What we know:
The protein is of the alpha/beta class. Helices cover 38% and strands 22% of the residues. The strands form six sheets. The chain has a seven-stranded mixed β-sheet with strand order 15-16-17-14-13-19-20, with helices on both faces. Strands 10-9-8-11-12-22 form a six-stranded mixed β-sheet, with helices on both faces. The longest helix has 24 residues, at 110-133. The structure holds nicotinamide-adenine-dinucleotide. Nicotinamide-adenine-dinucleotide binds at residues 160-164, 169, 187, 189-190, 219-220, 223, 238-240, 243, 246-247, 261-264, 295, 389, 391, 417, 458, 462.
Amino acid sequence: MSSTNPVHPDLPTLPDAPAEIRHLIGGEWRAGGVLVDVHSPYSGEVIARVPLADEPTVDACVAAAKAASVDWRGTPLKERTQRLFRFRELLLRDLDTLAHLCSSESGKTVVEARAGIMKGVEVIEFALSIQNLDDGAVLEVSRGVSCEVRREPLGVVVGITPFNFPAMVPMWLFPIAVTVGNAFVLKPSEKVPLTAVAMAERMVEAGFPPGVFSVLHGDKAAVRALARHADVAALAFIGSTPVARAVYVDATSSGKRALCLGGAKNHLIVVPDADRDVAVDGIVRSFTGCAGQRCMAASLMVAVGDVRSILDAACERAKSMVLGRDMGAIIDATALERLHKALQAARAEGAAIRVDGRNAPAPKGFEGGYWLGPTILEAKPEMDCAKTELFGPVLTVVHVETLEEAMALGDANVYGNATSVFTTRGAVARFVAARAQAGMIGVNVGVPVPREPFSFGGTKASRFGMGDITGRAAIELWSEQKKITTKWSMQSDMNWMS
Ligand code: NAD
């Protein structure tokens, strides 16, 4: 695969022939399960065939991971970390190739794909620092008695990831999970297996022992088998809310630790004192980035009072965007059809289409792909398009008179991933940050993703389970603390510790 596309440098270079994907189990590339086609969102062409793991394949993968976890947990943290240093070097060495691969299967632009990998690298860098951060604790708690706290891995842990960030979301999970001493099984979305395989090849090259990092391809059958597997100690899931909820129930009812992140309907509140240029840039980038297929995308703009000039400018900016250059493609034909139906339903409910992306031209040579241009609807808060996650480049705008009304819409939102406010007044910013029921708040930031070492995670139906993904919270997620109380001076104490 070359690093530039001959049609346009911003478009990905697609693989020459469909790749035959395999699972990485116990350090070997293995078949197992029926094969299904993977289509590029850019062209609709089949670019890979991926196996959907059956139960024996899931069992084999978990067994290999379990065997590997024994030596790995006994390997000193500093030694475990050395492999991750090497993995980071390999990702940076091959950044361009990986970005094209990720773009070709996910529909992201190459620039977005590269940024996603770099965000994953940031998590790696956090994981590399654990050796210097996490030094445990020991204290003399009574005369001659010490109490020591040690961090220990859980064993075999699993990450189940969505299609929309083929590199970044898996890297939210495995760098920290393996560094703290677990054997990690990645079950990537069956829509984007190529990037997972490319990362796995580099994990092998970096010297991780067989079974410490595995890739198991599959669909809901593989997920169910992993969530219920007796030898899996913990699971993280990232995907849509209905599946997150079901996986959380499956995993926790079989005694696992689980953190399952779900979907979103992020509110972006715009008040009249907002800086026009900052707001327009933030709004448009937020709802069109990754073609709106990210859980942090602004999907509802709450216009408080008269912000007409900001909305008009955002519409003009959205209309000027060119598919393939400024925005990528929709993941598949099913998602595109779902979006078309949602737009028809919004029209039928009485929403006005201010910017209609349905006729935006596909990039030349990529007419077989799944394309939808930026679309802006003006609607009423009670309409479906103002409440449901559409997961595409569609911004719904609703109008309210007061900030209190804007906050009430947030309270009624079943999701709680992110809320942003565009304002030049500190008091407004502080009010929204304190009052909004979302896990991540942006002030003049359209995509308020916390950077390491801060953790990522929402509330309400955007998250099932305790804690957050990435950062310090992830160390807690993937490990437990063992408390050792020791007495070596053999006096017979008469206190309550005797
Ligand atoms: P999805 O729920 O369809 O799939 C996610 C994973 O679950 C995939 O690995 C898939 O194979 C598996 N899966 C699908 N259906 C299943 C079922 N019935 N039972 C068990 N497993 C199943 O999600 P998607 O379409 O790949 O991703 C988009 C969704 O993910 C959006 O809702 C988006 O908001 C959400 N998302 C959330 C976050 C977050 O951090 N909260 C991040 C990225 C994406």
